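Methods: example folding runs. The two proteins below were folded one after another, and each record is reproduced exactly as written to the output file, sequence line first and structure-token line second.
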Amino acid sequence: MDSLHRHSVLVEDGKVKEVEAEAVIIGGMVLDIHATPSVPANPRTTTPGKVNYMLGGVARNVAECMSKLGTRLHLISAVGLDMAGNLLLEHWKSAGQSLEGIQRCQEIETPVVSNIFDVKGELAAAVASVEAIEKFLTPEWIQKFDYKIGSAPVVMVDANLSPPALEASCRMAAEFGIPVWFEPVSVVKSKRVVSAVKHITFASPNEDELIAMANALSCGDLFRPIEKNNKTIKFSTQSLFHMLYPAIWVLLEKGIKVVIVTLGRDGVFLCSKGVPRFLKNDSKRSNPHGSNSDLYVSINSNCPPNRFCKAPVVEGSSKMFAVHFPALPASVVRLTGAGDCLVGGTLASICAGLDIVQSLAVGIASAKAAVESETNAPSAFSMAKITGDAKSVYFASKMLSCQSML
């Protein structure tokens, strides 16, 4: 193995240990039960349809997506010695992934989420039994893998973690100078950002999670979700950004470096306070010629790097740097894995050495592949398809005007 893929770190016994540089993903492994009716469901009775077991959990989905794009990674999680745990671990092991970071014991009940969809494939209701993530994915367990965190190109945490575990994970990464990605998971759990905000580099909320995070960080109820009940109203990209701008600014003011707001069919906003340092394609930062060199070469040759590097704002400026990325048209099969694969595709690209604009284009292409799949992460990615879709998104991305909001 090339020595550039290894880092020397100090371990507990005072010895220096050579470890492989791997992205570290911390959070839930969950067995999803998906129930999809074949006809519109009626209350208080059974409905014909299909019930499937799906391998899920935000962290697990992100990690699977990244691994299928060629990224070396280390997953830190917890599952039980039960049927659900066995299903999750058998698949993870068969994919050639290490089980070292996954805690198992008799007391753990493997997290399970039961999802009920409507006939269009959209989530109608769900029941989650995921207490084990908070109870067993403790700061002490995560601390065991500090040598992995210290050599990682990036650390991702999902908000299924308890606030103490979340804070400990982010602080540990920050002490090593490792960028941290916070995935909010849900409106309720997104508020846990408060415990770790000063250590977070990237955050990827949807509109509702963004509002919840801004309110939690403001210690008030200043922001309201955008009402979209009237489907005859179509907001322009600029007007939608104008409405979300104050909430985005709160996250940036509190210390998050890059806010990525996912908007469903309206695409994605990439925002930072001044031009982010991740805007520059820097191969020295994460060594693109590793296990995912194919991704680096393919995207870099089709999406020329440093697209917005000459933007008229600078790091530390009071102005916001903001870019809109359109969504891709897709033949939707299931929507549940889209957000996780957007994160996974973006992180895989960052680890490969691509800049944040290139990386987010790959993330959106990965999300499209996910919604066209029966599973939360596609069984495989076509590099040609990912590259073609990423290229479409990349060249359609546009900077947004912030002047009227300053």
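Second run, written to the same file directly after the first:
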Amino acid sequence: MLFKLNQFRIVQNCSVLKKLFHSYPASLNQIQLSFSKRMEKAMEERIDDLKTRKQDRFKAKKEKYDGRSKRRKWEHDETEEAKRLRLEESGGERIKRRKALVLLGYSGVNYCGMQRNLGIETIEEELLKAMLKHKWINDLGFQTPQQLQFQRAARTDKGVSACRQVVSLKMPETYDIDAINKDLPSDIKIFAVKRVTKGFNSKSTCDARTYSYTLPTYALTKHDEEYDENTYRLPAERHEELNKILNLYEGTKNYHNFTIRKEPNDPSCRRYMMKLECPPPFIPDNSEVEFAKITVKGQSFMMHQIRRMVGLVIAIMKGYAESFTIPHAMEKERMNIPQAPGLGLVLEKVHYERYNKKYGNDGMHELLEFKEEDPLVEEFYHKNILSTIINTELKEKPMQTWIKKLKNHSFTGEAEKDEEDNNSGNVSD
């Protein structure tokens, strides 16, 4: 109707056609009627053609997409072999799986990192073997964990331990934590399993990670200061100075000098450090040596970053560098930052504040705060992680050996190649 009205207005506004209209009204009406019918028929044919094309596209898409999940699931993703393994494992019936979070801790001294690496002892390899034995995952999930959306919150490499590491995956609704812990090595333990949302990803949903670095306080003495390892106690003013230096890292800064194979203008080198501090030192049981624990909370970290942050702090406390070296290291100029030993590095906690705010009180999901599990975590930490750090430091003295080399360290230029190639005790998220 709108088209016909516009057409009529065009005819009426044309001076030539107006004259014809008065002279030959019958002929004009016939011309107008014929033109209107042709245009209306053409429009109807065009609309029908567009509808047909849309239906064809929808039909082709529906053949590939089952429409049952938020993510696309293509029919040909699952091979016949994978389907056979899945059906055999479930006795011919489909096992109902839900996305879940697994909270675990481990001492990483005897492992080559968290991430699975075939032929090498890793935390994930031991974890997946135990999960397969207790049917938390099937054969297909063991061979290719990504089929079950397996993901870790943070990657810890050789020698690095964790108090509250988190992995997420799709697993059965029924499980026995005590039973699986009996088949895990004594230095790996699962503390809890919590149901989470379908789209939960333990890495990308994580807001921040908190790491700690434990070291003997004699590492913080001046390079020309005489001390006894067993009787040295960090003075209050030196402890205050340490915290002031740590505060220089807070905020968003460019950490290209604190990792490897990164250019100064690489956007991924900008990392947000939320809080760094060192609580009062402590003396562990069965030890005379005093230790301190530096905690670092940041949004994410790169390879070598925390060890180099700690290494530079020690160099400043020893007097081999000045405090302004930290902001200077964030500039574009290349600098060789000393890298502290990996023994004392521990993943303390992963944070899910945004997730808790959105889903923690919806009545279907739990808060990811792990307060109920804290007693178990602390017991495991003191028995399997802290005691290993303390005993290894007292017997092998890796920190003392490293400090002896620190006095010859050159801060100019890039990191030495042998240091870059040494991946023990790195973290990256």
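Comment on the second run: Residues 1-5, 65-77, 416-424 have pLDDT under 50 and may be disordered.
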